[in-house]
Amino acid sequence: MWKSLQSVASLMLSFGLLLMANAMFGTLLGLRSKLEGFSTETVGFIMAGYFVGMLLGAVYAVRAVGAVGHIRAFAAFASIMSVAVLSHLLRVDPVSWFFLRLIAGFCMAGMVMVVESWLNERATKTTRGQIFSLYMMVNYMGSAIGQFALTFGDPAEFELFVIASIIFSIALVPVLMTRSSAPKPAVPERMKFRALFAISPLGVVATVCSGLANSSMNSLGPVFARDSGLSIAEISAFMASVLLGGMVLQYPVGRLSDRLDRRSILLITTLAASLACLGIVMATSMPVYWLFIAGGVYGSFCYTIYPLAAAQVNDLADQDRLVQVSAGLLIAYGLGAIMGPIIAGQLMGAYGPNALFLMTASITAGLALFTAWRMFRRIRGSKRKATYLPLGSWGLSSKQFYAATLGHILKNRQQDSDEPE
Questions:
Q1: Any alpha helices (H) in 352-398, and if so which ranges?
Q2: Residues 340-376: pLDDT tens digits?
Q3: Residue 211: which CATH number?
Q4: What is the pLDDT of residues 158-193, one digit of tens each?
Q5: Short-list 46, 22, 35, 48, CA closest to 96
Q6: Do 40 and 341 form a contact (C-beta atoms < 8 A)?
Q7: Which of 102, 124, 181, 225 lies most in the core, judged by the most C-beta atoms within 10 Å?
Q8: Can you give the residue range of the structural domain that contains 319?
């Protein structure tokens, strides 16, 4: 494990810094938007720009990488990202901020794709699983630590914007200093959405619902906390509790879903997430630590929906099309993520901050009903199941590394089953 860590330490450091700065700035911008007098509906549109850019970046950023190479592309993305963060201070305007968020989402998707490609090349047959586990820990921990960086300054001033820009710039250094050779960019064949839906309607619907819920929480969670009367430190703690909670049940839920009917586990997690949303609404009238606890429970269940959905689709898909399936799921997640902040912003503007989690409760409860219906429509078959692998809460991934890890595990399983007893 130590050798595996050493071989990818610089790349993991860059990835952690990226997630830290991205999570910090996402929360900061939501708070600053309200301080600037923007309505909650407007904030929802602004924050949706990031997910539009993320989806465009996941599809098209590979062209920039292919044209100039991984190192130059990463440097360009990081530099543009750093400039985009500071540019928010030059013009305080919702339309300008929307396009700046779009640029940020595109650049972030490109940078994560570069890091994942490198990790995929550096991983070997014996270390791929360890590296993927470390990758996901850095994903959640980096996002959680970024929330506490908000306490270093006042969201109404410029210092936090400068800090976020500095962190994005520093994230350049480990990648530029790595000794490993840059991999060749891979452009996966795209799968038509109709073909993906035909494989698993439940998996696609659950992916879209996960995008709706996660993007709404990541974008407007700070607005909910602020409008509920929390201080900056308490807002940071609330957001961090949700993200850290998302890490807690990944392994046990994954193990259960690998052994039992995946859909029954999805049904339980969606119902639990729906109840946790109602718990958060109730906790707003209680001491603040109850809100942190409810947020942690919510994150524990809601952030397992996306990987459960991906595993459900991979269970039914041909194993030689893992990359195409993963790319298709990314688009499905992105579509949901774009709509989430817009819908949530409208509801919160009309009915108050609690509408965020009432909306999420409705989404997860509706998904639970659809899951139960699909369980009656399609009986569980005897086909070999894929392996549950956790996915990042922010939906930031080119899925190349995910698909390669999943394919590696499946090949090992096949080899083990072919060996004579």
A1: 355-377
A2: 999 999 999 999 999 999 999 999 999 999 999 888 8
A3: 1.20.1250.20
A4: 999 999 999 989 988 887 776 666 666 555 566 677
A5: 46
A6: no
A7: 225
A8: 2-418
